[in-house]
Structures are given as structure tokens and as C-alpha cells.
């Protein structure tokens, strides 16, 4: 059943996004450059704020708080760098991220929310709450999360939040 959920999520992610022609090798290399492998990591103020507002929202609707995970943080960072290099937000290579988290963090089910060009945690939370798909992800049965917020050369912020059980 667990593997079915992962395969279903991969199929949905593939159907809901347009994949670029870039290979996953680029994102793999980016992950290697920012990988944390369960080491203690220091996240930025805005990254912590996103985790906090998402947890406040989850608690307000009767759900558990999600705990920070450094392995997922490495993948969120790498995906932000990839999106910045492509100049657009996308779920490209999600199946690879989910598969890697399945192996490296023993994840049974993985999902992600993305955003771009928001300036603070409250604004991205409101956008996600107002999108049925993003809201469903935030309200999912998850235990762990990580969020990366990365600015491109023009100061535009890219957001990747990974959730997993």
C-alpha cells in the first residue's frame, strides 16, 4: 500500500506538471553540493517562519505539528537551486526526490508545496491555504517537513516545502 501511494503521487505529479528537458543529473549535482546527511543545519529566519505558520495552521485544524528533517532540507535546497537555474517553478524531478527520501529518510509518502515571488511566511501560507491542492498537502498525514527559501539574483524568493510520513 505504501509503495502504491508513492507511485500514485508520482503519477499525479507527472500529470500535473510539465517536465522540462533537463535531466535529473543537474538537480542530483545540486543536491550533492547542499546535502546535509542528518547533520545539524541552520535554517534561515524566513524558513523557520514558514515551518511555524504551517504548524500553527495544522494545529488550528486539529492536525499534528510536522518536525524539521535535515535530509529533506537538502533536497528542498537543491530543488530551489534547480528552479532558479531554470527560471520557473516546477515539480520537475519530484519522483526522484520522493524516491531518494524514501531510501534516505525511510519515507513512505512524500509531497511538496512550491511558491515563488512571495516576501514572507504569512503570504505564502495564505496562497497555499487558498489553493485546494496546496491546502490538501499542508493538511496531509505527515510527520516531517523541511522548507527552503532561496533568492535568485534579482531577489525573487523561491519556496520548496517537502512533507513526508
TrEMBL record:
Membrane spanning stretches: none
Pfam families: CAP (PF00188)
Taxonomic superkingdom: Bacteria
Residues in SCP domain copies: 52-163
InterPro entries, per database record: CAP_dom, CAP_sf
Keywords: Signal
Signal peptide: 1-23
Keyword Signal part of the UniProt annotation: yes
SUPFAM superfamilies, per database record: PR-1-like
PANTHER family: SCP DOMAIN-CONTAINING PROTEIN
Name by which UniProt lists this protein: CAP domain-containing protein
Organism: Zobellia amurskyensis
Amino acid at each position: 500500500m505504501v509503495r502504491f501511494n508513492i507511485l500514485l503521487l508520482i503519477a499525479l505529479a507527472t500529470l500535473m506538471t510539465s517536465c522540462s528537458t533537463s535531466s535529473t543529473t543537474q538537480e542530483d549535482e545540486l543536491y550533492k553540493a547542499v546535502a546535509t546527511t542528518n547533520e545539524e543545519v541552520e535554517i534561515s529566519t524566513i524558513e523557520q517562519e514558514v515551518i511555524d505558520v504551517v504548524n500553527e495552521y495544522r494545529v488550528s485544524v486539529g492536525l499534528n505539528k510536522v518536525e524539521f528533517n535535515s535530509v529533506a532540507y537538502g533536497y528542498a535546497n537543491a530543488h530551489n537551486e534547480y528552479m532558479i537555474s531554470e527560471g520557473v517553478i516546477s515539480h520537475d524531478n519530484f519522483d526522484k526526490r520522493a524516491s531518494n527520501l524514501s531510501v534516505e529518510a525511510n519515507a513512505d509518502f512524500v509531497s511538496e508545496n512550491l511558491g515563488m515571488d512571495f516576501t514572507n511566511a504569512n503570504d505564502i501560507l495564505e496562497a497555499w491555504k487558498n489553493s485546494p491542492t496546496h491546502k490538501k498537502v499542508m493538511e496531509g498525514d505527515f510527520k516531517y517537513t523541511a522548507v527552503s527559501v532561496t533568492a535568485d539574483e534579482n531577489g525573487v524568493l523561491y519556496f520548496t516545502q517537502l512533507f513526508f510520513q
